[in-house]
Amino acid sequence: MISRRDYLKLALAAGTTLALKPGLLWAEDKQLDLITRAIPSSGQRLPVVGLGSSATFASVSRSEDRDALRDVLKTLVEQGGKVFDTAPSYSASEAVAGQIARELNITDDLFWATKVNVAGWGDGKADPDTAREQIETSFKRIGKPVIDLIQVHNLGDVPTQLGILKEMREEQRVRYIGVTTTFPRQYDDLERIMAREPLDFIGIDYAIDNLTMEQRILPLAREKGMGVLVYAPFGRTRLWDKVKGKDVPTWAAEFDAYSWGQFFLKFVVAHPAVTAATPATSKPRHMADNMGAAMGVLPDEEMRQRMIHHIAGL
Ligand SMILES: NC(=O)c1ccc[n+]([C@@H]2O[C@H](COP(=O)([O-])OP(=O)(O)OC[C@H]3O[C@@H](n4cnc5c(N)ncnc54)[C@H](OP(=O)(O)O)[C@@H]3O)[C@@H](O)[C@H]2O)c1
């Protein structure tokens, strides 16, 4: 539990500009609980906001970039976050994050969600030895004997690669397994795979202006008892472009959201099928801002509809 006062101190120390009326800032020293969700297949609870890394950790060549990412990971953990989403295909992401986590001594504090795919994004076949090699490299980079979650990236050769992951889950080298896609052309395949495979997780795109997943995939995940990681909760730059120069509505304070980041994240994690969202950021102040969405209360269904209409009307 963190008090509003402590949260704001942390956020302000990290330089977060909260779109908050000054009067509200110190109005009350309300206790804000960290919001967690249970992984359906185990009951293990995870904070509902984590960190993604595709376009951020992937290209760290300059030392100041690396310092910023170090502070991003530090902020994630300091504020109670755990889930870190990466992939071998995100260039340096796995290696850099693994190294930074060791330096900060937080390797065991993180819930490592990585991926496997040596088959490409279409109908390509995965060579099983090459896929195993890629997974072994992830173990070395992350530096843990057991990886929390490995998912088949973009549904690449699921029979082969999920087959390997099932064996590894059996051997207890991987705790949870799943599949990911953010491509609409793969949604039907995703649904078919969810219907037949014993997945612990799926990773999908979902945002306040991208609601396709509410139709079939999120209800199916609930029915099948699968955890859901939400990718691209801001549509990368799409939602930021939409709200540029616009204030967060004051009624967002009813569910403890004081910035657009918190508004968008609280919308997705309030869906009962969602386990956690993993927005990417290269800035510690944005990480602190995003973690604010894992605190306090979440909007109910009526409020979520109001949020959708508000954004659609901008
Ligand atoms: N198939 C897959 O498996 C798959 C596909 C897509 C994504 N993913 C995962 O999901 C993660 C997230 O998706 P994404 O990176 O595509 O997009 P996203 O999380 O929707 O958006 C990231 C963008 O939002 C900005 N941002 C983050 N927090 C902010 C804040 N509080 N205020 C203002 N701007 C903020 C970031 O810029 P700053 O750096 O300036 O903060 C970045 O440009 C990926 O990194 C990856 O780990 C997986």
TrEMBL record:
Residues 50-305 form the NADP-dependent oxidoreductase domain. Pfam families: Aldo_ket_red (PF00248). It comes from the Bacteria. PANTHER family: D-THREO-ALDOSE 1-DEHYDROGENASE, NADP-DEPENDENT OXIDOREDUCTASE DOMAIN-CONTAINING PROTEIN. This is Oxidoreductase. It comes from Marinobacter lipolyticus SM19.
